[in-house]
Amino acid sequence: MRRIRIKQTTGTTVPGFENGNGQRVVRDTGFASESFPGQRVYHLRCRRCEFQYGANGTDILKRLCPRCQGGARGERLRDPGPSLFAEI
Ligand SMILES: [Zn+2]
Question: pTM for this one?
Fold first, then answer.
């Protein structure tokens, strides 16, 4: 298990968390957010349209889907792919 160093009391960054809008946390990408210093980018997925995008940790709770709910554009998802960053 990777340790999560960002302080969060609400648990919104835990994979599997789903906010009130049906936006679900898939995983912590480990990349720094480009829009919110000190935060990381989390991989979210919309339950309604299956759209996947990145969001910083402070954003998750109120996130709306960029595609079907008119939410703000998501952050870039930089998926390194399983072969490059494979964890032992
Ligand atoms: Zn959607």
Answer: 0.77
